[in-house]
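User: Hello, can you help with two protein structures?

Assistant: Certainly.
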Amino acid sequence: MSITALVILTVFPACMLFATFYDIFTMTIPNKITFILVIAFAICAPLAGISLETAMWSIGLAFLVLAVGFALFSAGIMGGGDVKLLAASTLWFGTAFTLPYLLYGGILGGFLTIAILLYRRLPMLPLFATRFPWLERLHDKTQGVPYGAALGPAAIIIFAYSGWMEFILKGTPIG
Protein backbone atom coordinates (compact mmCIF):
# COMPACT_ATOMS: atom_id res chain seq x y z
CA MET A 1 0.00 0.00 0.00
CA SER A 2 1.38 3.38 -1.00
CA ILE A 3 1.86 6.20 1.47
CA THR A 4 -0.84 8.17 -0.40
CA ALA A 5 -3.30 5.28 -0.03
CA LEU A 6 -2.45 4.99 3.65
CA VAL A 7 -3.01 8.72 4.20
CA ILE A 8 -6.35 8.60 2.37
CA LEU A 9 -7.45 5.52 4.29
CA THR A 10 -6.52 7.19 7.56
CA VAL A 11 -7.36 10.87 7.21
CA PHE A 12 -10.84 10.87 5.69
CA PRO A 13 -12.43 8.21 7.92
CA ALA A 14 -10.64 9.55 11.02
CA CYS A 15 -11.91 13.08 10.38
CA MET A 16 -15.47 11.85 9.83
CA LEU A 17 -15.40 9.67 12.96
CA PHE A 18 -13.93 12.49 15.02
CA ALA A 19 -16.60 14.89 13.74
CA THR A 20 -19.32 12.33 14.54
CA PHE A 21 -18.36 11.88 18.16
CA TYR A 22 -17.30 15.47 18.77
CA ASP A 23 -20.70 16.64 17.55
CA ILE A 24 -22.54 14.16 19.78
CA PHE A 25 -20.56 15.19 22.85
CA THR A 26 -20.34 18.95 22.28
CA MET A 27 -22.93 19.88 19.61
CA THR A 28 -20.10 21.48 17.62
CA ILE A 29 -17.72 20.43 14.85
CA PRO A 30 -14.28 22.05 14.99
CA ASN A 31 -13.23 24.07 11.95
CA LYS A 32 -9.93 22.16 12.09
CA ILE A 33 -11.71 19.03 10.88
CA THR A 34 -13.15 20.83 7.87
CA PHE A 35 -9.76 22.40 7.16
CA ILE A 36 -7.98 19.03 7.34
CA LEU A 37 -10.52 17.48 4.95
CA VAL A 38 -10.06 20.29 2.41
CA ILE A 39 -6.25 20.30 2.61
CA ALA A 40 -6.06 16.49 2.50
CA PHE A 41 -8.25 16.48 -0.61
CA ALA A 42 -6.05 19.11 -2.27
CA ILE A 43 -2.97 16.99 -1.57
CA CYS A 44 -4.40 13.52 -2.19
CA ALA A 45 -6.57 14.16 -5.26
CA PRO A 46 -3.70 14.68 -7.72
CA LEU A 47 -1.69 11.87 -6.12
CA ALA A 48 -4.66 9.51 -6.60
CA GLY A 49 -4.95 10.42 -10.27
CA ILE A 50 -7.95 12.72 -10.10
CA SER A 51 -7.93 14.92 -13.19
CA LEU A 52 -8.06 18.69 -12.92
CA GLU A 53 -11.49 18.67 -14.58
CA THR A 54 -12.88 16.14 -12.08
CA ALA A 55 -11.35 18.07 -9.18
CA MET A 56 -12.92 21.31 -10.44
CA TRP A 57 -16.34 19.62 -10.63
CA SER A 58 -15.87 18.42 -7.05
CA ILE A 59 -14.92 21.92 -5.92
CA GLY A 60 -17.90 23.46 -7.71
CA LEU A 61 -20.25 20.91 -6.19
CA ALA A 62 -18.79 21.52 -2.74
CA PHE A 63 -19.42 25.26 -3.16
CA LEU A 64 -23.01 24.54 -4.26
CA VAL A 65 -23.53 22.37 -1.18
CA LEU A 66 -21.99 25.12 0.95
CA ALA A 67 -24.34 27.74 -0.55
CA VAL A 68 -27.45 25.60 -0.01
CA GLY A 69 -26.20 24.71 3.46
CA PHE A 70 -25.65 28.38 4.27
CA ALA A 71 -29.28 29.05 3.32
CA LEU A 72 -30.37 26.21 5.63
CA PHE A 73 -28.12 27.61 8.37
CA SER A 74 -29.60 31.09 7.89
CA ALA A 75 -33.07 29.60 8.22
CA GLY A 76 -32.06 27.87 11.47
CA ILE A 77 -32.47 24.41 9.95
CA MET A 78 -28.86 23.27 10.03
CA GLY A 79 -25.84 24.08 12.16
CA GLY A 80 -22.83 25.90 10.74
CA GLY A 81 -20.39 23.12 11.59
CA ASP A 82 -22.66 20.57 9.93
CA VAL A 83 -22.80 22.69 6.77
CA LYS A 84 -19.02 23.08 6.60
CA LEU A 85 -18.48 19.36 7.23
CA LEU A 86 -21.00 18.48 4.53
CA ALA A 87 -19.31 20.75 1.99
CA ALA A 88 -15.79 19.53 2.83
CA SER A 89 -16.79 15.88 2.60
CA THR A 90 -18.61 16.55 -0.68
CA LEU A 91 -15.22 17.48 -2.13
CA TRP A 92 -14.16 13.88 -1.65
CA PHE A 93 -17.26 12.41 -3.32
CA GLY A 94 -17.62 14.67 -6.34
CA THR A 95 -20.39 14.23 -8.87
CA ALA A 96 -20.37 10.43 -8.73
CA PHE A 97 -21.04 9.91 -5.03
CA THR A 98 -22.45 13.13 -3.56
CA LEU A 99 -26.08 12.25 -4.23
CA PRO A 100 -25.82 8.84 -2.51
CA TYR A 101 -23.95 10.56 0.33
CA LEU A 102 -26.72 13.12 0.75
CA LEU A 103 -29.31 10.34 0.60
CA TYR A 104 -27.58 8.25 3.26
CA GLY A 105 -26.98 11.36 5.35
CA GLY A 106 -30.66 12.24 5.12
CA ILE A 107 -31.81 8.74 6.06
CA LEU A 108 -29.38 8.42 8.97
CA GLY A 109 -30.16 11.99 10.01
CA GLY A 110 -33.87 11.16 10.02
CA PHE A 111 -33.30 8.17 12.29
CA LEU A 112 -31.03 10.25 14.52
CA THR A 113 -33.62 13.02 14.75
CA ILE A 114 -36.42 10.60 15.61
CA ALA A 115 -34.26 8.93 18.27
CA ILE A 116 -33.38 12.29 19.84
CA LEU A 117 -37.00 13.49 19.74
CA LEU A 118 -38.10 10.28 21.47
CA TYR A 119 -35.31 10.72 24.02
CA ARG A 120 -36.48 14.29 24.63
CA ARG A 121 -39.98 13.04 25.39
CA LEU A 122 -38.70 11.45 28.57
CA PRO A 123 -40.09 13.65 31.35
CA MET A 124 -36.78 13.47 33.17
CA LEU A 125 -33.47 11.83 32.59
CA PRO A 126 -32.56 8.59 34.33
CA LEU A 127 -30.26 9.28 37.26
CA PHE A 128 -27.16 7.84 35.56
CA ALA A 129 -27.64 10.19 32.59
CA THR A 130 -27.45 13.31 34.75
CA ARG A 131 -23.75 12.58 35.29
CA PHE A 132 -23.04 13.12 31.61
CA PRO A 133 -23.43 16.71 30.35
CA TRP A 134 -23.70 15.55 26.73
CA LEU A 135 -26.71 13.34 27.56
CA GLU A 136 -28.35 16.29 29.31
CA ARG A 137 -27.62 18.49 26.28
CA LEU A 138 -29.16 15.92 23.91
CA HIS A 139 -32.24 15.84 26.16
CA ASP A 140 -32.59 19.64 26.12
CA LYS A 141 -35.46 20.57 23.79
CA THR A 142 -33.90 23.95 23.07
CA GLN A 143 -30.85 22.30 21.48
CA GLY A 144 -30.59 21.23 17.86
CA VAL A 145 -29.68 17.83 16.50
CA PRO A 146 -25.99 16.95 16.12
CA TYR A 147 -26.30 16.22 12.42
CA GLY A 148 -22.59 15.54 12.09
CA ALA A 149 -23.40 12.31 13.91
CA ALA A 150 -25.32 11.24 10.80
CA LEU A 151 -22.97 12.73 8.22
CA GLY A 152 -19.95 10.85 9.58
CA PRO A 153 -21.37 7.34 9.22
CA ALA A 154 -22.95 8.22 5.87
CA ALA A 155 -19.59 9.43 4.58
CA ILE A 156 -17.79 6.31 5.74
CA ILE A 157 -20.39 4.06 4.09
CA ILE A 158 -20.11 5.92 0.77
CA PHE A 159 -16.31 6.14 1.04
CA ALA A 160 -16.18 2.33 1.13
CA TYR A 161 -17.77 2.21 -2.34
CA SER A 162 -16.05 5.21 -3.87
CA GLY A 163 -13.16 5.50 -6.28
CA TRP A 164 -10.96 6.28 -3.28
CA MET A 165 -11.31 2.70 -2.10
CA GLU A 166 -10.47 1.40 -5.59
CA PHE A 167 -7.33 3.51 -5.45
CA ILE A 168 -6.46 2.26 -1.96
CA LEU A 169 -7.02 -1.42 -2.73
CA LYS A 170 -5.81 -1.68 -6.31
CA GLY A 171 -3.83 1.50 -6.97
CA THR A 172 -6.25 2.31 -9.79
CA PRO A 173 -6.20 6.05 -10.57
CA ILE A 174 -9.54 7.67 -9.78
CA GLY A 175 -9.63 9.69 -13.02
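That covers the first. Now for the second protein you mentioned:
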Amino acid sequence: MNKLFVYILLFFSSITSAQKDSLDIGDRYADDQIYFMVSYNQKFSQPNSVTRSGFSYGLSTGFMKDIILNKQGTISFALGAGYGYDFYNHKLKVEQINQSTLFSTDNTLNSNTYSSHNLELPLEVRWRTSTANKYKFWRIYSGIKFLYNFSNNFEFLSENDVKTSYANIDSYNKLQFGLTLSGGYDVINFHIFYGLSPVYKNATINAESIETKVLKFGFVFYFL
Protein backbone atom coordinates (compact mmCIF):
# COMPACT_ATOMS: atom_id res chain seq x y z
CA MET A 1 0.00 0.00 0.00
CA ASN A 2 2.84 2.42 0.85
CA LYS A 3 4.44 1.91 -2.57
CA LEU A 4 1.14 2.67 -4.27
CA PHE A 5 0.86 6.00 -2.42
CA VAL A 6 4.41 6.92 -3.49
CA TYR A 7 3.76 6.11 -7.18
CA ILE A 8 0.50 8.11 -7.19
CA LEU A 9 2.09 11.15 -5.54
CA LEU A 10 5.08 11.14 -7.91
CA PHE A 11 2.79 10.94 -10.94
CA PHE A 12 0.50 13.73 -9.76
CA SER A 13 3.45 15.92 -8.71
CA SER A 14 4.79 15.93 -12.28
CA ILE A 15 1.36 17.02 -13.57
CA THR A 16 0.71 19.75 -11.01
CA SER A 17 4.20 21.27 -11.12
CA ALA A 18 3.62 22.10 -14.77
CA GLN A 19 0.15 23.42 -13.95
CA LYS A 20 1.48 25.76 -11.25
CA ASP A 21 3.98 27.33 -13.65
CA SER A 22 1.16 28.31 -16.00
CA LEU A 23 -1.34 29.71 -13.48
CA ASP A 24 -0.64 33.34 -14.36
CA ILE A 25 -1.36 33.07 -18.08
CA GLY A 26 -4.36 35.36 -18.69
CA ASP A 27 -7.31 36.05 -16.37
CA ARG A 28 -8.69 32.54 -16.51
CA TYR A 29 -6.78 29.82 -14.72
CA ALA A 30 -7.37 26.30 -13.39
CA ASP A 31 -6.62 25.17 -9.86
CA ASP A 32 -5.82 21.52 -10.57
CA GLN A 33 -4.67 19.82 -7.39
CA ILE A 34 -3.33 16.74 -5.68
CA TYR A 35 -5.28 15.96 -2.52
CA PHE A 36 -4.31 13.87 0.48
CA MET A 37 -6.81 13.10 3.25
CA VAL A 38 -6.58 11.61 6.71
CA SER A 39 -9.80 10.98 8.60
CA TYR A 40 -11.33 9.53 11.73
CA ASN A 41 -14.08 7.10 10.69
CA GLN A 42 -17.24 6.14 12.52
CA LYS A 43 -20.35 4.10 11.73
CA PHE A 44 -23.93 5.29 12.17
CA SER A 45 -27.40 3.77 11.60
CA GLN A 46 -26.08 0.63 13.25
CA PRO A 47 -28.38 -2.26 14.31
CA ASN A 48 -29.59 -2.08 17.91
CA SER A 49 -27.51 -5.09 18.92
CA VAL A 50 -24.23 -3.58 17.66
CA THR A 51 -22.33 -1.29 20.02
CA ARG A 52 -20.15 1.68 19.07
CA SER A 53 -17.10 0.90 16.94
CA GLY A 54 -13.53 1.39 18.15
CA PHE A 55 -10.85 3.62 16.68
CA SER A 56 -11.04 3.60 12.87
CA TYR A 57 -9.33 5.72 10.24
CA GLY A 58 -9.06 6.44 6.53
CA LEU A 59 -6.36 7.60 4.12
CA SER A 60 -6.82 8.71 0.54
CA THR A 61 -5.02 10.54 -2.23
CA GLY A 62 -5.80 11.56 -5.78
CA PHE A 63 -5.98 14.30 -8.40
CA MET A 64 -8.69 16.91 -9.02
CA LYS A 65 -9.24 18.58 -12.41
CA ASP A 66 -10.58 22.13 -12.11
CA ILE A 67 -13.10 23.59 -14.59
CA ILE A 68 -13.58 27.36 -14.22
CA LEU A 69 -17.18 28.69 -14.18
CA ASN A 70 -16.48 32.45 -13.99
CA LYS A 71 -13.81 34.81 -15.32
CA GLN A 72 -12.32 35.55 -11.91
CA GLY A 73 -11.72 31.86 -11.25
CA THR A 74 -13.39 32.01 -7.83
CA ILE A 75 -16.13 29.50 -8.75
CA SER A 76 -15.45 26.21 -10.44
CA PHE A 77 -16.48 22.61 -10.89
CA ALA A 78 -13.96 19.84 -10.25
CA LEU A 79 -13.84 16.13 -10.92
CA GLY A 80 -11.18 13.73 -9.82
CA ALA A 81 -9.92 10.22 -9.34
CA GLY A 82 -7.95 8.65 -6.53
CA TYR A 83 -7.34 5.80 -4.15
CA GLY A 84 -8.68 5.35 -0.62
CA TYR A 85 -7.86 2.99 2.22
CA ASP A 86 -10.13 2.53 5.25
CA PHE A 87 -9.54 0.55 8.43
CA TYR A 88 -12.35 -0.20 10.89
CA ASN A 89 -12.26 -1.59 14.40
CA HIS A 90 -15.90 -2.63 14.63
CA LYS A 91 -18.31 -4.73 16.68
CA LEU A 92 -20.14 -6.61 13.95
CA LYS A 93 -18.93 -10.17 13.38
CA VAL A 94 -18.90 -10.94 9.64
CA GLU A 95 -18.42 -14.43 8.21
CA GLN A 96 -18.59 -15.86 4.70
CA ILE A 97 -19.98 -19.42 4.92
CA ASN A 98 -20.91 -21.45 1.82
CA GLN A 99 -21.17 -18.31 -0.36
CA SER A 100 -23.45 -16.63 2.19
CA THR A 101 -22.52 -13.72 4.45
CA LEU A 102 -23.51 -14.17 8.09
CA PHE A 103 -23.74 -11.31 10.60
CA SER A 104 -23.70 -11.65 14.38
CA THR A 105 -22.26 -10.16 17.57
CA ASP A 106 -19.62 -11.78 19.76
CA ASN A 107 -18.31 -9.89 22.78
CA THR A 108 -15.68 -12.56 23.49
CA LEU A 109 -13.53 -11.61 20.48
CA ASN A 110 -10.11 -10.17 21.25
CA SER A 111 -10.21 -8.09 18.07
CA ASN A 112 -12.59 -7.55 15.17
CA THR A 113 -11.45 -5.43 12.22
CA TYR A 114 -11.82 -4.98 8.50
CA SER A 115 -10.08 -2.98 5.80
CA SER A 116 -11.13 -1.79 2.36
CA HIS A 117 -9.38 -0.48 -0.75
CA ASN A 118 -11.42 1.84 -2.95
CA LEU A 119 -11.33 3.77 -6.17
CA GLU A 120 -12.52 7.30 -5.42
CA LEU A 121 -14.43 9.52 -7.87
CA PRO A 122 -15.10 12.94 -6.26
CA LEU A 123 -17.21 15.70 -7.85
CA GLU A 124 -17.16 19.19 -6.32
CA VAL A 125 -18.56 22.69 -6.70
CA ARG A 126 -15.86 25.08 -5.50
CA TRP A 127 -15.66 28.62 -4.13
CA ARG A 128 -12.33 30.26 -3.23
CA THR A 129 -10.66 33.66 -2.90
CA SER A 130 -7.72 32.79 -5.15
CA THR A 131 -6.31 34.69 -8.11
CA ALA A 132 -3.96 33.62 -10.88
CA ASN A 133 -0.98 34.72 -8.75
CA LYS A 134 -2.34 34.04 -5.25
CA TYR A 135 -1.71 30.50 -4.03
CA LYS A 136 -2.80 31.00 -0.39
CA PHE A 137 -6.54 31.56 -0.11
CA TRP A 138 -9.78 30.66 1.68
CA ARG A 139 -11.92 27.92 0.17
CA ILE A 140 -15.18 26.03 0.59
CA TYR A 141 -15.68 22.94 -1.57
CA SER A 142 -18.83 20.79 -1.47
CA GLY A 143 -19.94 17.85 -3.55
CA ILE A 144 -20.40 14.13 -3.76
CA LYS A 145 -17.91 11.28 -3.77
CA PHE A 146 -18.39 7.82 -5.27
CA LEU A 147 -16.39 4.88 -3.93
CA TYR A 148 -15.87 1.65 -5.84
CA ASN A 149 -14.51 -1.10 -3.62
CA PHE A 150 -12.05 -3.45 -5.30
CA SER A 151 -10.86 -5.25 -2.17
CA ASN A 152 -12.10 -5.84 1.39
CA ASN A 153 -10.89 -8.09 4.16
CA PHE A 154 -12.65 -8.99 7.42
CA GLU A 155 -10.65 -10.47 10.29
CA PHE A 156 -11.35 -11.37 13.90
CA LEU A 157 -9.35 -12.93 16.70
CA SER A 158 -11.10 -15.29 19.14
CA GLU A 159 -10.48 -15.32 22.88
CA ASN A 160 -8.15 -18.29 22.22
CA ASP A 161 -6.15 -16.15 19.76
CA VAL A 162 -7.43 -18.06 16.73
CA LYS A 163 -7.43 -15.75 13.71
CA THR A 164 -10.17 -16.00 11.08
CA SER A 165 -10.35 -13.85 7.95
CA TYR A 166 -12.59 -13.51 4.91
CA ALA A 167 -11.76 -11.60 1.74
CA ASN A 168 -14.25 -9.86 -0.57
CA ILE A 169 -17.47 -10.92 1.10
CA ASP A 170 -20.59 -11.11 -1.06
CA SER A 171 -22.72 -8.70 0.99
CA TYR A 172 -20.23 -5.83 0.88
CA ASN A 173 -21.67 -2.92 -1.10
CA LYS A 174 -19.02 -2.31 -3.75
CA LEU A 175 -20.48 1.00 -4.94
CA GLN A 176 -20.97 3.57 -2.18
CA PHE A 177 -21.37 7.33 -2.20
CA GLY A 178 -21.76 10.26 0.13
CA LEU A 179 -21.76 14.04 0.50
CA THR A 180 -18.50 15.91 1.06
CA LEU A 181 -17.58 19.29 2.49
CA SER A 182 -14.10 20.79 2.70
CA GLY A 183 -13.02 24.21 3.86
CA GLY A 184 -10.13 26.21 5.23
CA TYR A 185 -7.11 28.25 4.28
CA ASP A 186 -4.04 27.40 2.21
CA VAL A 187 -2.81 23.78 2.32
CA ILE A 188 -4.60 22.43 5.42
CA ASN A 189 -8.40 22.19 5.41
CA PHE A 190 -11.07 20.33 7.35
CA HIS A 191 -13.02 17.62 5.52
CA ILE A 192 -16.28 15.73 6.15
CA PHE A 193 -17.71 12.73 4.31
CA TYR A 194 -21.32 11.78 5.13
CA GLY A 195 -22.25 8.40 3.69
CA LEU A 196 -25.62 8.07 1.97
CA SER A 197 -25.37 4.42 0.96
CA PRO A 198 -25.17 1.41 3.31
CA VAL A 199 -21.92 -0.51 3.74
CA TYR A 200 -23.71 -3.85 3.27
CA LYS A 201 -26.44 -4.99 0.92
CA ASN A 202 -29.24 -7.45 1.67
CA ALA A 203 -27.87 -7.81 5.21
CA THR A 204 -29.77 -8.65 8.41
CA ILE A 205 -29.00 -9.49 12.03
CA ASN A 206 -31.66 -10.93 14.35
CA ALA A 207 -34.28 -10.18 11.67
CA GLU A 208 -33.22 -6.51 11.67
CA SER A 209 -31.96 -4.89 8.48
CA ILE A 210 -28.37 -3.65 8.62
CA GLU A 211 -28.30 -0.09 7.27
CA THR A 212 -24.82 0.82 8.53
CA LYS A 213 -23.34 3.97 6.95
CA VAL A 214 -20.03 5.78 7.35
CA LEU A 215 -19.13 9.21 8.69
CA LYS A 216 -15.58 10.49 8.16
CA PHE A 217 -14.10 13.73 9.45
CA GLY A 218 -10.54 14.93 9.42
CA PHE A 219 -8.18 16.98 7.27
CA VAL A 220 -7.51 17.30 3.57
CA PHE A 221 -4.26 18.71 2.19
CA TYR A 222 -4.22 20.35 -1.25
CA PHE A 223 -1.04 20.68 -3.29
CA LEU A 224 -0.62 22.65 -6.52
